[in-house]
Design a protein that fits this description.
Radius of gyration: 18 Å
CATH superfamily of the largest domain: Response regulator
CATH class of the largest domain: Alpha Beta
Strand content: 5-15%
Length: 212
């Protein structure tokens, strides 16, 4: 017997949840939707007991939580996250991807793109819809050139994670994560920007569009 593909759908609009469920069932057939609703706490409770193959997340759950805080809470459980949401600003998209989100597509995307995105996530690959890629390309990039790993470490750390959590999300040791942050600070210091504290890193990351 083949193993069921397990999903969580975090979306606050019932009709959208139903449409996503129908699309998943019609394409994958043998699936287990362990939770479908708008409560992050309920989703986390399910993840506490068993991981899933894909969490489909709407950024705006109308739960008074900052979208990036919801992302951080989910990626802590190491379950792949696919954002299906209204197209956000480039800083939000960039931050979400840096935090470890596997895919990001607009709600305006074609249904075939949704399936492509889910299949990519299930294979362990990353996926962004053309609208999302265009939003990233059209945005002004940061002033200081960072490597992908340095940028991801900076976004995670500046967003509030402890160094041990940053390391866990990146699949590296805490010492290596700390080294990335030291490199980030050195590069900004060389450009004349002081980032000696986590607050400084957060301020600079926001000013350069790395986090919203």
């Amino acid at each position: 017997m083949s193993q069921q593909t397990r999903f969580i759908i975090l979306e606050d609009h019932p009709l959208v949840r139903e449409a996503l469920t129908e699309k998943l069932v019609s394409h994958f057939r043998d699936i287990d939707i362990t939770y479908s609703g708008s409560s992050l706490e309920a989703a986390l409770d399910h993840l506490e007991h068993a991981p899933v193959d894909c969490v489909i997340l709407d950024l705006d759950l109308n739960d008074n939580n900052a979208p990036l805080n919801n992302i951080l809470a989910l990626v802590e459980y190491s379950s792949p996250v696919l954002i299906v949401s209204a197209l956000g600003d480039s800083a939000t998209i960039r931050s979400a991807l840096a935090m470890g989100v596997k895919g990001y597509i607009s709600k305006q995307a074609e249904s075939t793109q949704l399936i492509q995105a889910i299949e990519a996530v299930l294979r362990g690959e990353e996926y962004t819809s053309p609208e999302v890629a265009t939003a990233l390309l059209s945005a002004n990039g940061p002033q200081v050139k960072l490597s992908d790993q340095e940028r991801r470490a900076m976004v995670l750390y500046a967003s509030g994670l402890k160094m041990t959590s940053v390391a866990r999300q990146m699949g590296i040791t805490a010492g290596t994560a700390d080294e990335y942050i030291k490199r980030v600070r050195a590069k900004y210091r060389k450009s004349g920007i002081a980032v000696s504290t986590k607050t400084d890193l957060y301020r600079v990351a926001r000013s350069e569009g790395l986090i919203p």
